[in-house]
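From the methods appendix. Each design record in this collection lists the tokenized structure first, followed by the designed amino acid sequence. Records were kept in a plain field format so they could be parsed without special tools. The example shown here is representative of the layout used throughout.

RECORD:
FOLD TOKENS (480 positions):
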């Protein structure tokens, strides 16, 4: 325990010195004169400099032509190696404070305040136009958390998050090795990012084909079990996913975006209120449509699941819709939006059929805090967004949530049973209110603040604890 604490402190101190150094270096680099021959427009260069969520999808070879506005990190983002080869080095560094009052609706600790730190460092070696090797190391820790770090999501001293070889094939590329995967915006499968500290890697293969009509992905992956010690993450014996995803080309946000996918999931050990623990074979057919036109934005997604759990039939579904309107010609560009989420629950315990929708590793729709999982949940949301400056975004949202079926309880975010349910209990889980601010200090440095209150509904008050949750969070993130 003492060694783990020392390692976490060293990581935090190192991160602080690193951020301080790059913040100081940034303005110096910005004063450098543009190199001769930089031919890109400011808009085109700004688009190329956008740091992707999936860093493996970036390509910095355009820097060999020179940059109009040099950056302190250009020398690392494009390193020519000769004979057409190049290397790109980057990192995602995050310091994260969380504070809880009644973290689990008053069951257990009354208060818990702690710091998390995460470092993702990657190297992208392009040997030629047809072959590259991408590697990404991860290191995560937590300090002062009462009860210690949660085994798979808080701490990982040092391990491989991604390491794959990508080779060109007719019409696209093939990736072999450890990777990350997110379907759509992450409602059904994502990287476990956000409030959780350790991201979710996968071991396997992915084929990506592209043409003018769009993109097709085919994949098969074993889930990687992330564990605290150095280089001990493994995928042997873990659940695996396979599937295909088709995306229609969307030249501009004004054009209708369409995604269709089939996702297979096979696990030797799964847990539900209906049936206990057993083997699960689940298939998900899903689709998503989205558009942003004339101030209006809309994003809708639906899924149907089928398969077997311990020999019993699975039939489940989900539906999500987020939409809003932005007053682009008004000061602060106010946006008013709404959202609807419904994920099926089990209709009757012990009837030989499982109706519980399983979103696997999913992005939660109700803000930074996710006090419960998405299974057997339905709710509506009202949201307001303001942008006082181009680099400052303010959000206020309120969500009302209840159980979709009264026979089943609710689950934690990691899909562990949280609270059982019965028809005799209320379906009202409660409501959640969040105030958030995001400030881009520089192109690389971002500060985010969150203040959340979860009001326990009748269903929560009828069980243990039954208290409201208060949550505060501050995130400092540096990326290059």
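DESIGN:
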């Amino acid at each position: 325990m003492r060694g783990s604490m020392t390692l976490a402190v060293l990581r935090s101190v190192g991160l602080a010195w690193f951020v301080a150094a790059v913040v100081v270096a940034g303005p110096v680099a910005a004063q450098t004169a543009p190199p001769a021959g930089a031919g890109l427009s400011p808009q085109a260069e700004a688009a190329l400099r956008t740091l992707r969520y999936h860093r493996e999808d970036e390509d910095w070879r355009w820097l060999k032509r020179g940059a109009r506005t040099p950056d302190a990190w250009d020398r690392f983002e494009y390193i020519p190696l000769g004979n057409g080869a190049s290397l790109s080095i980057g990192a995602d560094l995050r310091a994260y404070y969380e504070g809880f009052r009644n973290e689990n609706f008053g069951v257990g600790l009354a208060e818990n305040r702690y710091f998390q730190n995460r470092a993702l460092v990657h190297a992208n070696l392009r040997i030629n136009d047809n072959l590259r090797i991408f590697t990404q190391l991860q290191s995560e820790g937590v300090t002062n958390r009462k009860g210690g770090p949660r085994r798979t999501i808080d701490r990982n001293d040092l391990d491989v998050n991604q390491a794959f070889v990508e080779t060109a094939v007719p019409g696209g590329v093939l990736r072999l090795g450890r990777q990350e995967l997110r379907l759509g915006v992450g409602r059904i499968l994502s990287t476990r990012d956000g409030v959780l500290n350790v991201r979710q890697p996968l071991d396997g293969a992915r084929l990506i084909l592209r043409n003018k009509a769009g993109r097709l992905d085919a994949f098969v992956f074993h889930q990687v079990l992330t564990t605290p010690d150095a280089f001990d993450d493994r995928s042997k014996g873990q659940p695996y996913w396979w599937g295909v995803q088709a995306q229609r080309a969307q030249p501009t946000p004004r054009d209708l975006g369409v995604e269709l996918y089939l996702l297979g999931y096979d696990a030797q050990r799964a847990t539900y209120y209906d049936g206990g623990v057993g083997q699960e074979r689940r298939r998900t057919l899903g689709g998503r449509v989205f558009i942003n036109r004339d101030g209006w934005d809309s994003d809708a997604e639906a899924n149907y699941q089928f398969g077997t759990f311990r020999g019993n039939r699975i039939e489940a579904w989900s539906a999500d819709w987020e939409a809003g309107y932005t007053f682009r010609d008004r000061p602060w560009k106010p946006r008013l939006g709404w959202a609807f989420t419904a994920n099926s629950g089990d209709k009757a315990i012990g009837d030989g059929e499982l109706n519980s929708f399983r979103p696997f590793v999913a992005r939660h729709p109700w803000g930074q805090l996710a006090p419960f999982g998405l299974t057997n949940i339905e709710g509506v949301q009202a949201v307001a967004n303001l942008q006082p400056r181009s680099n400052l975004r303010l959000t206020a949202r309120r969500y009302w949530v209840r159980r979709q079926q009264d026979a089943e309880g609710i689950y934690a975010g990691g899909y562990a049973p949280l609270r059982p349910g019965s028809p005799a209990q209320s379906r009202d889980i409660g409501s959640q209110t969040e105030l958030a601010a995001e400030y881009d200090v520089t192109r690389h440095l971002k500060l985010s603040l969150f203040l959340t209150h979860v009001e326990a509904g009748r269903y929560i008050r009828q069980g243990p604890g039954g208290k409201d949750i208060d949550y505060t969070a501050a995130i400092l993130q540096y990326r290059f």
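APPENDIX NOTE: Helices lie at 2-30, 42-48, 74-77, 458-461.
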